Amino acid sequence: MYRAHFRCIAGCPGEHPLDEPLYRCPACGDLLEVAHDVAALRDRSAAAWMKLFDDRYKRTTWPYGSAVWGKKEWVCPSVRDDQVVSMDEGGTNLFWAERFGRAIGLDDLWVKQCGNSHTGSFKDLGMTVLVSVVRQMISDGRTVRAVGCASTGDTSASLAAYAAAAGIPAVVLLPRGKVTTAQLVQPLAHGALVLALDTDFDGCMAIIQRLAAEEGIYLANSMNPLRLEGQKTVAVEMVQQFDWQVPDWVIIPGGNLGNVSALGAGFDLMEALGITTKRPRICVAQAEAANPLYRAFVNGFDTFAPIKAEETLASAIRIGNPVSVEKAIRVLKNYDGVVEQASEAELSDAAARADRTGMFNCPHTGVALAALCKLVARGTIARGERVVVVSTANGLKFTDFKVRYHEQALAGIDARHANRPVQLANDYDQVRRALDAIRP
After folding, report:
1. Most buried of 105, 206, 242, 323, CB within 10 angstroms?
2. Domain locations in the chain?
3. Residues forming a β-bridge with 341
4. Per CATH, which fold does 94-120+228-406 belong to?
């Protein structure tokens, strides 16, 4: 009884089925988005939707135990249950960052730990939807040579894992030498064809789009709106975890900008169905070395110009020509949004400072935390407001970043929170004297 389809974000007429390998509007070439039959979804009251989702949340009835597929009617209602490829994605911890929040001047700070997922990043939320649709396409007799993506690490890991679970070939294009060992080994372990190219993410993206057009590769990057359908459940889930209350602010790292587009879509749908009446403000946090959206924001979004992204420790968001920029700007305008940037020193110190309070942050979360600190310091975010920082990946994928920080080996970074091991002889008195370093 529920249905969804692709439509052009520019408003071109026409509906396109979700199982069509289509990534841009055939009329104008603009991006597509998934549109739901909101009138049909209104057959349930807001209270009934909330109860249904609460009853399913983290249960074992297939496939609704997944925090994505537990909201199937809002995500991809046409996928048959037996075609769903799920690894219990979502349902991640909403961490009360009490100590870090109060240290920077906030009483109600939370970190949505999306990296506590099967492959260690929020990409799983979208990949379960995309790969499930492809699996159903193949089951229905469609020919799909392989699923493929360009990636700075996390997308490739997620795609490879879900494709392996579905028995579908996967090919990933990575910028050589610009992903961590932990990220590189994931698609290799899952049997994907891994192509390391002498270029950056934007160069990989150009080639994968051509492969999708000419070689029968099904595109799995976030310009495919199916990805955003899964990722939008981050917005729904954080509201659900707050007993269906909307936070005042959401801070999210931004690279290719599909994540902020998805965030807005989730909040939009909840509002349309009467679940919520309030909108949060949204901040997109970018690395200073890869900040095209920040530059556009400073100029009032009058123009947007791609840039050549420079080296940054936040490698997953080292993107100078983000595909989803139009969608992201639309969301920011609708949600009274802002864009902030963080230098390499700021993101490194913010990640390390928060680690001292019990977290273990990836550098991209460090970008978001650094942006948060700036917004609090200048009074844009008030002490009593409820803030959620979206942590996009597990810090264990970036151990080299952590080790080099604490060894004070990151070029140009003072590492104010470095903590090095103390080398001692096998001597009790030396150990005892070392305890003098402990401070209450």
Report:
1. 323
2. 94-120+228-406
3. 286
4. Rossmann fold (3.40.50)
